[in-house]
Structure prediction request, 467 residues.
Amino acid sequence: MILEMKNIQKSFGELEVLKDISFGVDSGEVVSIIGPSGSGKSTLLRCATFLETIDGGEILYMGEKAAHTDESGKAVYVHQKELHRFRSYCGLVFQQFNLFPHYSILKNLTDAPIEVQHRSREEAEADAMELLRKMGIADKAKAYPYQLSGGQQQRVAIARALAMKPEILFFDEPTSALDPELTGEVLKVIRQLAEEKMTMVVVTHEMPFAKAVSNRVIFMAGGVIVEQGDPLAVFDNPQEERTKQFLRVFER
Amino acid sequence: MTLSTMLSTMSVGMLRTCGIFALTLLGSLPLGMIVALLRKSRFSVVRGIIRVYISVMRGTPLMLQLLVWYFGPYYLFDLSIRGWRFPALILGFILNYAAYFAEIYRGGIESISVGQYEAAEVLGYSKSQTFLRIILPQVVKTIMPSVTNEVITLVKDTSLAFTLAYQEVFSLSKQISASQTSFMPFVIAGVFYFVANYVVAFVMERIEKSMDYYR
Prediction:
């Protein structure tokens, strides 16, 4: 198992956002997480990528514990140095891209590999150009983020995450900030990655995409996993009432 | 007094004005950053002290602060320090301007979206790498107009050294104008300040242009 999240609890002050979430992701799997706003989907992703700290439960990458709950019920994380290694296992693509505006596209892709992973400039640049070619934007290497369209920027963001060679790639509503035309080009890239057996977890509202590309769909609502399973099963034959209620909206 | 004598006498003042200007920037630009970072300290005592410091520095006249630094040691602690005039002057300027720069830096830092920090964190950058490589360059570009304002103000504020009887160009212009009953010294001083500010504006604009490669 690449990732295991067990009995995850997370609250923001009084608000309990994740009540008791458990799921795992195997190598090569593509898991889609769908659900209404406020269901905790983004929070779950942020906990998995260590942007947020859990209040309870366990997070395991490759069978190793990054965080667990001790006897007193408090969540305990490994030391900074170890956490650094766990961070290198995951990549995150944000809804708002979050590219570095003062870096060229090429530098956005090579800076972290060079400065964080201490790879050589030649290796980093060669890898970066290869990624840009795959994304279809090799000609934009010297350009700056502000000169690219939203769809292109998001593809750069995906390339930037891939440049770090993560074990698993997380996507937090990658196309929600894009208009329908640009959404397609990003989904195409994600589909391509799925075909290459990249392990991915995608939080999305693009139902047809989730149905077509994922191996498994998780439906979250109110901080719990309501239903999960094969995409055809969840979409075409939902068991839970909450799931049916949510999917009904998309049938219009 | 001939014009050339006037000019050569006042040029000593001009150099001193430049000296105050340079030393103040050298001291307050970095100190301002330290203050801005301390203002975000985990310890509420530190935060409190910094906020009081900024409030007092910006809330009272620089002229008054210069007098406090100059006369403070003697009146409060009975200390008579030789050659205290210049150090007191520079201390007053640096502490005052550091407070203004601190707030400019803070505004710049707070304008950077949290997404930048998060992207850097997920990519594995350390806190210092994030600050130096990702945040600071963007902050510098954002704060340039405000920094330019402060620097231009500083060029003119150097004339406050008059308060401590430090003979920079403004003080000299007053003195020579009185003793020679001539208007010329004021013209010379005016031209000097104008040219100095022109140079400052030119340099700042060049710096802003060099960061114009992105938006």
Q: What stands out?
A: Chain B has a mean pLDDT of 93. The interface with chain A takes residues 113, 115-116, 118-119, 121-125, 129, 133-134, 137-138, 141, 213-215 of chain B (CB under 8 Å). Chain B is about 80% helix and 0% strand.
